[in-house]
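Structure ticket #2291
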Amino acid sequence: MYTTVKISAELKKKLEEMKMSDSETYEEVIEDLIEDRLSLNPQFIAEIERRREEAKKGNVTSLAELKRGRK
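Resolution: structure written out below.
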């Protein structure tokens, strides 16, 4: 499913300039920006570290359990 997003001509120009190649889509550019933003977000990094510690302790849910709707 796709949706239309209204942006200014200035923003469209900036997105165009950020493309790594002519074939790269605006969606790919935006996904890269979101990924970069998340990687810089201290709360996001802290949550990853917290979950890594939980996994080390064995506090994990298997894929089979998730499919069964447990935990």
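Closing remark: The chain has a mean pLDDT of 91.
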